[in-house]
Amino acid sequence: MTAKEEPLFPIVVLGGGAAGSAVLNALGDAGLAADTALVEPSPYHYDQPEWVRVGTEGRDKADTRSPRHANIPSATTWIQKSATGIQPDEQIVNMDDGTAVRYEHLVVALGIETLWDRIRGLKSSLGDQGVCSVYGYEQAERTWEMIRSFSGGRAIFTAPSTPHKGGGAPLQILRRAESLWRDTGTRAQTELVFAVAAPTGLKEGAYDDLSRDGDKDDVHVYTGYDLIEVRHEAQEAVFSVTKGRSQTRQVLPYDLLHVVPPMRPPALLEESGLAHRDGPMKGYMEMRPESFQHARFATVFGVGDALGVEGEKTGERAREQAASVAQALLRLRAPNK
After folding, report:
1. Which of these three, 195, 227, 258, is where a domain ends?
2. Helix (H, G, I), strand (E, B), or coil: what is residue 322?
3. Cα end-to-end span (Å), the chain
4. Residue 274's domain spans which residues?
5. Residue 237 sits in a domain of what CATH number?
6. Separation of alpha carbons 93 and 315, rounded Å
7. Residue among 15, 46, 11 nearest 110 (CA)
8. Is the pLDDT at 52 greater than 90, yes or no?
């Protein structure tokens, strides 16, 4: 097939994670499965929200992974390749093997990526000497081992300044660990620290049961604490601390450090011209929040974490978006059915 003979699909879904799976299910319910192609290279689907239970309850991580084909409607075409480029003007998605597919409508469900390297020393420290995170298939299991065997000291749980998967998961992870430590008698020997990178913006009422900035009641909550370095051997966490217009650095020793890493949409999205070019949502998909349709390209829709919208990024929200997009596509395609 020559470059001028790329296959054409009525609907192409880009990304098969939680958002992509939600889109496929919604399109199937709308009777559009046969009109749809999924672009997704991975043979496995991961139930990432369940990694919280792997890391805090000991659930078997293998139970969170399933063959990809089990989540794809039989009538849908699966293109098991990696996308390397999106050309919204030409309505083309380029693949890593030099081929391309054309679309009448594109649904971007790329999700966001964990950027372990954005925190100095973190990637090489994960899984050792108290450094852990449930935000990875391999790391979630090690997190459970560390939380279960923790015998007391200072336990720091972080939340990044960037939008992140799971909405309130950073605090949920802390509370699940705390519950276990109460059951084992470890809580009385533990200083709990919740280090939130955002200098302001804690939702009203969301942390009413937590103490604030150094109080010694329940949990120490430090706002404006953005983790920038892990000193593995010394077991020290280095934070960039923002208070008003001032910015300093603070070093906190730890016995256990649970990290929620910075996250961003894949570079593919930003390079496509579909993303915001600047502002707080730079790199996230530019779209109309009432319709999830791109602000400049009417043939492009978006679902999931990569969207440039305020609010928590959760599976429930992605499913709601997917249902809305599927109905919009059904209306657009009704004359052709």
Report:
1. 258
2. helix
3. 28
4. 3-112+265-336
5. 3.50.50.60
6. 25
7. 15
8. yes
Q: Which has the closest alpha carbon to 111: 321, 313, 312?
A: 313
Output the DSSP codes for 202-233. Answer: PPTTTTTTS--TT-SSS-EEEETEEEEEEETT
| 316 vs 234: which has the higher pLDDT | 234
C-alpha–C-alpha distance, residues 145 and 10, integer Å: 47
Other CB atoms within a 10 A radius of the CB of residue 235 amount to 19
**In whole angstroms, what separates CA 87 from the centre of its chain?**
25
248 and 294 co-located in one domain: no
Portion of the chain with pLDDT greater than 70, in percent: 92
**Tally of domains within the chain:** 2
Same domain, yes or no, for 250 and 130? yes
* Strand arrangement, sheet containing 153-159: 131-132, 256-258, 153-159, 190-196, 220-223
Neighbouring residues of 75: CB distance < 8 A, sequence distance ≥ 6 = 28, 33, 34, 36
Of 206, 232, 258, which residue constitutes the final position of a domain? 258
Model pTM? 0.88
Alpha-carbon distances of 161 from 169, 202, 285, 289, rounded to whole Å: 14, 12, 18, 22
Q: Are residues 186 and 304 in the same domain?
A: no
Instruction: Convert the pLDDT of each residue in 126-157 to its tens digit.
Output: 999 999 999 999 999 999 999 999 999 999 99
pLDDT of residue 335: 63
Amino acid at 83: A
Distances from the Cα of 2 to the Cα of 96, 160, 270, angstroms = 16, 46, 28
Angle between helix axes 137-149 and 169-184 (nearest 10 degrees) is: 30
